[in-house]
Write a structure and sequence with these properties.
This protein is α/β, with parallel strands linked by helices and 430 residues long. Helices cover 39% and strands 14% of the residues. The radius of gyration is 21 Å and the shape is globular. The chain binds ligand KE4. Ligand KE4 binds next to helix 4 and helix 5.
Length: 430
């Protein structure tokens, strides 16, 4: 593959933006090599500035569940944008978006739109602290909730990839208020609450971890967190920025039958535009300005263009059988990869729920963060580049989840598995 144009752009970018990118994971730092620059995208494909086509298993890190440049989404944006890009006053599409989210996710009696998942999670934590009058929050090792100061403590995703568990610039006094537990460790959660439960404002958790590769909750674990929060008067916050509308129409909370007090959203609800949201119990959201004293605001929150893209996407995902198709194709991909790796004699396993999956270069099972860390990163990196050269783009980090869209069909999956058979053989030969 020729990457001349991408290389030239990256050289320029490196002099102008930190690491040449606007988000760290895009820089290929953990897999090595240089990122390609996208020129356009359609369906399951990204096309780079050198004309190379890739089957895209990231979909802009989750938003593109209906496929890139879906005609219905483009048409919705095209229609709305001609009436103005942002008003700074309420518009009807914000009401429709709030109606849609509260209908599809019943635990959200009210919702507030923001502009990113990070804004959603840091607002949810402020709300938890303001509503309870407590300061401590609990997160989980390997989980990532955006780059808000309180979360960059043993963060996952880009932070884990950078191998920097705590970020400089986060005051120790603030970091000390963030308690970190091991995901799926029942006893650890019970012990922490027994010791500090009265001080805990909230527990924020990725109900399915997608930022330390993809790790599923142990049977009963989410209910255990729900019970502890109820017992000690802490708020349970499901960070569904990634899992929301990804693993089921009602998100992970619908899949596992858990009712959190607050939920954060992002990605899919924007359909590719910058959108986040947080929602939950009416008595909590009512405490957010201007109806209550807890402040949060945003110039572009709820702007019509972003609402139009999000609403068109949320409309597409409500089609009958939408998730059945995603789940079937993701399972075919996972089974095919595992079988190809087995044939090549490579230690490999996958995890996943519906259209979200994880690839591991180690034997399973993957029951938690420590297991996820067993994956052979060197082999993953060889796999990543071997697949990329064959036109298949997986996440440029062993610590990320992968995503299918409704536009990943038989042809895309067969091409992926054919490439994987060749790459696994190469890896086995090393
Ligand atoms: P944003 O601020 O990036 O919109 O959302 C932050 C966030 C919050 N919560 C969860 C569960 C998330 O996965 C994210 C962001 N996810 C990463 C991918 N692992 C975004 C990719 C990136 O950082 O470039």
């Amino acid at each position: 593959m020729n990457h001349d144009q991408s290389h030239a752009l990256f050289q320029q970018a490196l002099t102008l933006m930190p690491g040449g990118v606007n988000s760290p994971v895009r820089a290929f730092k953990s897999v090595g090599g240089e990122p390609f620059f996208a020129k356009r995208a359609e369906g399951a494909y990204l096309i780079d500035v050198d004309g190379n086509r890739y089957i895209d298993y990231i979909g802009s890190w989750g938003p593109m569940i209906a496929g890139h440049a879906h005609p219905a989404v483009i048409a919705a944006v095209d229609k709305v944008m001609r009436d103005g890009l942002s008003f700074g006053v309420p518009n009807a599409l914000e009401v429709t978006m709030a109606q849609t989210i509260t209908r599809l996710v019943p635990s959200c009696e009210m919702v507030r739109m923001v502009n990113s998942g990070t804004e959603a999670t840091l607002s949810a934590i402020r709300l938890a602290r303001g509503a309870t009058g407590r300061n401590r929050i609990v997160k989980f090792e390997g989980c990532y909730h955006g780059h808000g100061d309180s979360f960059l403590v043993k963060a996952g995703s880009g932070m884990l990839t950078l191998g920097v568990p705590n970020s400089p610039g986060v005051p120790k006094t603030l970091a000390d208020l963030t308690l970190t537990l091991t995901y799926n460790d029942f006893e650890g959660a019970t012990r922490l609450f027994a010791e500090l439960g009265e001080d805990i404002a909230g527990v924020i958790v990725e109900p399915i971890v997608g930022n330390a590769n993809c790790i599923l909750p142990a049977e009963g674990y989410l209910q255990h967190l729900r019970d502890l929060c109820t017992q000690y008067g802490s708020l349970l916050i499901f960070d569904e920025v990634m899992t929301g509308f990804r693993v089921a129409l009602g998100g992970a909370q619908a899949l596992y039958g858990i009712t959190p007090d607050l939920t954060t959203f992002g990605k899919i609800i924007g359909g590719g535009m910058p959108v986040g949201a947080y929602g939950g119990r009416r008595d909590l959201l009512a405490q957010i300005a201007p109806s209550g004293p807890i402040y949060q605001a945003g110039t572009l929150s709820g702007n019509p263009v972003a609402m139009a893209a999000g609403l068109a996407t949320l409309d597409l995902i409500q089609a009958p059988g939408f998730y059945d198709g995603l789940a079937k194709n993701t399972q075919i991909l996972r089974d095919g990869l595992e079988s190809a790796a087995k044939d090549a004699g490579i230690a490999f396993t996958t995890t996943g729920v519906c259209a979200m999956f994880g690839l591991y270069f180690c034997e399973g099972p993957i029951n938690g963060y420590a297991d996820a860390m067993r994956s052979d990163s060197a082999r993953f990196n060889r796999f990543f580049h071997g697949m990329l050269e064959r036109g298949v783009y997986f996440a440029p980090s062993a610590f990320e989840a992968g995503f299918l869209s409704a536009m990943h069909g038989d042809a895309e999956i067969e091409r992926t598995l054919s490439a994987a058979r060749a790459v696994f053989a190469e890896i086995a030969a090393v």
